[in-house]
Amino acid sequence: MAMYRKLGKKSDQRKALLRNQVTQLLYHGKIETTEARAKEVRKIAEHLITLAIKEKDNFDEVTVTAKVARKDKDGKRVKEVVDDKKVTVYDEVQKTIKKDQPSRLHARRQMLQILYPVVEVPVEAAGRKAGTKKVDLTAKLFDEYGTKYASRKGGYTRIIKVGERRGDGAMKVILELV
After folding, report:
1. Which of 4, 7, 52, 64 could form a disulfide with 141 if both were Cys (CB 3.0 to 4.6 A apart)?
2. Count of CB atoms within 10 A of residue 168's CB?
3. Contacts of 49 (CB under 8 A, 6+ apart)
């Protein structure tokens, strides 16, 4: 007896499919897929959320000094002439950052093994690379989902049956975060 569903795919295709669906579930909050796929995605997603809950408060806040380029009213860098060269002017700023403890860092790396990088593209910047921004799903897991589901012991997802798919009669479901 198999320990998991093979979903009619080779192992590399199956892993890519499940990684993609887990990433989309955690980014959007719900996805529509077949029942067999949803049950496999549920296992992976609930494991990631459990990791996030266990390690959500496991960090140290550290104050560091950083050099930041001085900017004018238009948002452009301020330059000054030093030895006949234009040089950017930098200011030193105190910043507070979160430094992961080793167990949280390990959990973050385990999440990054599964999750694909997500790039958010605004409607006005469609087709261009300039207006895009990367979404940090691991931070979303720790900050948003870790605190939201901290009081739950499991069961972070719900499967709602929609009906049969037209082409092959496979049961379609909506998999969503509770």
Report:
1. 52
2. 7
3. 141, 145, 146, 149, 156
